[in-house]
Every structure is written in C-alpha cells, then in structure tokens.
C-alpha cells in the first residue's frame, strides 16, 4: 500500500511540553516511510486545515525537530480555540476537501477534551464520506481534566506535571518573600489557573508536603462562601501571623466581568477583574486581623509555557505518548487516543495504551472530593502521593545561545494550495 500523508495539529491552551509530543509524532512517522508520507502541521490547529495552511514538517531539519523538545507553548505550529459544531456543514465539507486534496491518510490532534471531540468528529465524518482517514488523539492540558474521575481512561495529562512543578517551586519562593515582609503584608493571595477543576491550585501543597508553611488552598470544589473564606484566612493569620492563600481563578467570588472563548470557556485573564484582585480588595476592605494589607501575585499564562520549570518526567511522558499515538495509528487504526496509565504499587511507573476517542471526547473528570480536607482549605496526603511523582526530581537541560534559550525555528514552508480560498464558517458572521 502506498504511503499516505500525515497531518498533525493542536488546539486549546499550550503547555511547556506540548512540542515534545509534536516532535515524537514527526520523528516516529519518519521511521516508517512505507506507511507515512509527507508530514504536515496545521498552522493554528483546525483553522490551518480549514484555511489550507499546512506547514511541511518533513522539510524541516532534524536539528530543529529535536529542539522542539525544549521549545514550550505553541509558537512552533500554532494553536487555536476554533470548535467544529454540528451545524457547521460548510466547515465539515471543507475539511474533507483539503484532506483529499493533500492525500492525508493520518490525522493526529493534540489537545484536551474539546480537541478529542474534534478529532473524533473529523474521523467520523471522513468515514461517513468514504475517506480512508485514521484519526488519533494525543492528550495534553495543564488542567488535568481529560478523562474520568476514576483514572481508568487516563491517569494524568502531559502538561499537568510541569504546571504542578511550576507552582511547587514558586510557592516556595513566595513563602520566603512573605516570611520576611509579613509585618507589612500579612496575607499574600496567589491566583492560579484552573477554570472548574482544582488540580492546579492543589499543586501548591507540593511546595510543602510536611505542612510547615501557613499555606491555604481554595479551589472551586472547596464549596465556600467568601465570608467563610475570609474567616479561614483570618484564623490562619491569628495562628501564624500571616497566610499564603493559593486560590483558583475559577473560585466563585461574584461578577468579574468575564469573557468567553469559542468553546464557551471563561477567559479569566481577559476578564475585567481577576479573582485574586477581587479577593485582595475584599480582604483589605473588610479587614485583616493584623497590621498591614493583603497583596496578590497573578502570573497568568506564564504558568503554562515556562520551560525553565518544566518537569523532566512530564517531558519524557509527552514524548512517549506522542510516539504511542503513531504506533496506534499504524497498528490499530482510527478512533483512539493514546493514553498514560499508572501501574499499581508504591513505586511510580506508567504504561501507554489506547482508549476510544468517543469515551474521552468532551469528557471532564472531577477533583476527588476525598482529596479535599475537612476544613476545605487544603488537600490530603492522597493527593500528594498522586501528584508528587509527576513533577520530577531534576531540572530540564535547556540549550542556550548568547545567554538566551535556543528554541526550534520551524521554517514557514507550506504545502502548495490546491483548493479555493476559504473563510472558516464561524468567522463569516463574526466581527473583527
């Protein structure tokens, strides 16, 4: 059978390790030239497929592909937040048109639960329209919300280990600063990502597994009112003289003037006021039972693209799950997502497998309620045992040139366009 071409794309928020999955897909496909032909990347995810903007990854040098290992975020091939919705028949027609025009037989989509839905839709519509296409999902998300709450579909997603390590180390540093400045700044509020699920704010506890800091964690699942939260903070201040408050950006503090992306997700960093600032305002206006004032740290998107803090464990697993996706496509066919599952036992070890895309498409796990302490201000040791192995025990070695990081430089070599110009359906009715 003649080799068919490959299309890889990614969508949603980036991670520090996403490009190592991309690298694995490109390198592994190149190892099987009789199966996989030219490897293309959709520029800015599914939008690149719709616009026929296909970067030729086969034309990139091996050195630049290797450098994807320590190139964070999505600058290499781009990402998007464009969702294929059932009514967008024009978009589905266009997807098939472009796939056929470029002899695409393999489609790899890197992303979270919404991306797995897109991968599933593309694979299904191709099959319905007689296109021989193998669609495979590759998991990533810092939120760790893909899959089920029993950890049977996936144990954790690539990207989460690195954001967890980011916070473990940054909470340590913040505590050192606050310990010195607490007479003037008794409360330090640190806002962390996590729209609806608490895995990211929970990672603050990894900075202090022995519970020696005056650290409190408030996630959406804490199910507390602002008054209860205020009382808890003041209790901590009374006990320790200060408090480090790790709070999820999704903690319900009332109106923040939110905006939403095309998936319907709240864009907290694009809203009128942050949860962190709203809490600081509330604490300062209603009084802290100590001299001084509450202050805040809101790092924003730095936590999802900072390669300096990346986990070596996360980096390795991102590569291996990308490679597994290629082997699934080669050996098992269409309709699966590559997954990471944990082996039983006290020693951390994982294996790589496959799960049906339809089971993970738009899935959303919950943070286990039994991992939240009774006072709702912390997480239990069970969470620590789950998450601590994911952050690794060493620093990622990042190449430097003239003192700055050397990232991959993917050249803008595009496939020749064979189809008409096209504007994605949702953009035809959206004002710029």
From TrEMBL:
Residues annotated to bind substrate: 141-143, 193-195, 249
Binding-site residues, Mg(2+): 113
GO molecular function term, any single one: metal ion binding
Location of the active site: 143
Catalytic activity reported: beta-D-fructose 6-phosphate + diphosphate = beta-D-fructose 1,6-bisphosphate + phosphate + H(+)
Site (Important for catalytic activity): 140
Record flagged with keyword Metal-binding: yes
Needed cofactors: Mg(2+)
Protein name: Pyrophosphate--fructose 6-phosphate 1-phosphotransferase
Organism the protein comes from: Natronogracilivirga saccharolytica
Gene name linked to the record: pfp
